[in-house]
């Protein structure tokens, strides 16, 4: 029996098409917002403002710190309670929906995707990595995973930090640190973004330990992209759309179980034949890509929301009483040592003295004040009028507000520790 246009069961309805467009928009808006948040927060942190550091925003630090607790009984430096919550949320998401974190939430993956889209516009034909070589190179991320986990266990430190491109991304506003402490990571970042111009999600495919971990965990999930080979017209658009170069069309048993699949739904949204490609937990019950994206975001943000509501989503070092991280002790002890010329022991003693005598201001302690911060930044962080900061420090009214704490204490002839005490008396 003939069918009228729009009623062909093999064609997508207007509503289906609108929902597919909405799925793409929601994904891009979410990923774009998260990328902007990461860049803004880490830039503010690098400039000395009260904002989360890149370490706090990377869920992988939660795994490394958990191993450190098991091995030596201490948190890794620079890792906060909120980082554990982020890690837990990503593990939950991986158990339920495989590598949906990579395809629906990860800001660094999205940045590579943006460069990949730019590459398509710049180059008519992009190079293809030979399949055999590509297959071998993809095991590198499992090697990175094993090494970073082992080193976290052995050293009790964020060993991968100097080599991590995501960490380098979080220090773009601190060029000094970028070309010294994080130079290797910065080079890897540049290689990653240039590589993504010609080969989608370069870092995700070959080096990302987080993706490797979620790929392994996701093996327990019944969720996957599913192919109905009877409906498939073998157009190859799904394979072409996949940023991870998974051969979706030829999935064995009609189910994409490859650990490289990041569940971004780009293949499903690219399929022109209704019923040929779907996503879901069972073969019989398909989930629309829009619903899948909403579900993935709910699974990720629900634990974060619960943690925030119960006061357990700490992403700022030392924001609360009795939650000081070792990062502040070491960084500021080193900072004072550099300014005073001693071996750091006196600085550490000053820190201990501060802990006993200070009165927190706006939830912050003397150890949160860095010598590199400007006076106006300190006033903003402590939520104090600038003239009150000047009065506490004994500075003249016309003293430049953009001067750093280090410069001001040198001008006044004080030590950094004494200068901080003036603020918190």
Structure report:
41% of the residues are buried. Helix 1 (14-46) packs across helix 5, helix 2 crosses helix 3 (81-97) and helix 16 (326-340) packs across helix 17. The protein has a 3-stranded antiparallel beta sheet, with no helix packed on it. The radius of gyration is 25 Å and the shape is elongated. By secondary structure, it is mostly helical. It contains 21 helices and 3 strands. Mean pLDDT is 83; it is low at 1-6 and 318-356.
Question: Can you describe this structure in just a few lines?
Answer:
This protein is an all-alpha fold and 425 residues long.
List keywords for this structure.
425 residues; mainly alpha; three-stranded antiparallel beta sheet; 56% helix; elongated; disordered N terminus
Report the sheet-strand fraction: under 5%
Shape designation: elongated
Helix content: 55-70%
Radius of gyration: 25 Å
Number of strands: 3
Distance between the termini: 88 Å
Oligomer: single chain
Structural class: mainly alpha
Biggest sheet record:
3 strands, antiparallel
Total helical segments: 21
Write the layout of secondary structure elements.
Elements: H1 14-46, H2 60-72, H3 81-97, H4 100-104, H5 107-122, H6 131-137, H7 140-155, H8 165-169, H9 175-178, H10 183-198, H11 202-206, H12 209-217, E1 224-227, H13 237-241, E2 255-256, H14 266-270, E3 277-280, H15 289-309, H16 326-340, H17 345-357, H18 375-382, H19 386-393, H20 405-412, H21 416-424
Antiparallel strand pairs: 1-2, 1-3
């Amino acid at each position: 029996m003939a069918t009228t246009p729009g009623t062909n069961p093999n064609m997508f309805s207007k509503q289906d098409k609108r929902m597919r467009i909405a799925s793409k928009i929601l994904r891009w808006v979410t990923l774009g917002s998260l990328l902007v948040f990461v860049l803004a927060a880490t830039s503010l942190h690098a400039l000395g403002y009260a904002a989360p550091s890149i370490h706090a925003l990377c869920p992988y630090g939660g795994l490394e710190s958990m191993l450190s607790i098991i091995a030596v009984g201490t948190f890794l430096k620079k890792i906060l309670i909120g980082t554990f919550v982020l890690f837990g949320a990503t593990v939950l998401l991986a158990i339920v929906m495989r590598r949906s974190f990579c395809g629906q939430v990860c800001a660094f993956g999205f940045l590579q995707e943006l460069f990949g889209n730019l590459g398509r516009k710049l180059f008519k034909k992009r190079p293809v990595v030979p399949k055999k070589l590509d297959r071998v190179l993809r095991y590198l991320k499992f090697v990175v995973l094993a090494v970073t986990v082992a080193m976290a266990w052995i050293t009790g430190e964020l060993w991968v930090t100097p080599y991590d491109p995501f960490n380098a991304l979080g220090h773009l506003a601190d060029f000094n640190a970028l070309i010294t402490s994080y130079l290797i990571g910065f080079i890897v970042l540049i290689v990653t973004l240039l590589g993504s111009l010609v080969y989608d999600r370069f870092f995700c495919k070959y080096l990302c330990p987080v993706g490797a971990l979620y790929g392994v965990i996701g093996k327990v999930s019944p969720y996957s992209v599913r192919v109905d080979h009877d409906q498939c017209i073998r157009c190859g658009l799904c394979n072409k759309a996949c940023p991870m170069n998974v051969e979706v069309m030829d999935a064995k048993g009609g189910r994409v179980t490859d650990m490289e699949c990041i569940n971004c739904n780009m293949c499903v949204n690219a399929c022109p034949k209704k019923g040929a490609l779907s996503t879901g937990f069972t073969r019989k019950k398909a989930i629309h890509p829009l619903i899948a994206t909403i579900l993935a975001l709910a699974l990720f943000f629900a634990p974060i929301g619960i943690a925030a509501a119960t006061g357990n989503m700490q992403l700022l070092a030392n924001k609360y009483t009795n939650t000081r991280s070792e990062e502040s002790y070491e960084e500021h002890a080193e900072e004072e040592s550099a300014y005073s010329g001693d071996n750091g022991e006196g600085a550490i003693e000053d820190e201990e003295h501060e802990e006993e005598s200070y009165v927190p201001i706006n939830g912050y302690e003397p150890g949160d004040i860095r010598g590199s911060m400007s006076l106006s930044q300190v006033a903003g962080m402590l939520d104090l009028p600038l003239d009150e900061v000047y009065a506490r420090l004994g500075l003249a009214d016309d003293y430049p507000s953009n001067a750093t704490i280090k410069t001001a204490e040198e001008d006044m002839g004080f030590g950094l520790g004494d200068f901080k005490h003036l603020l918190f008396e």
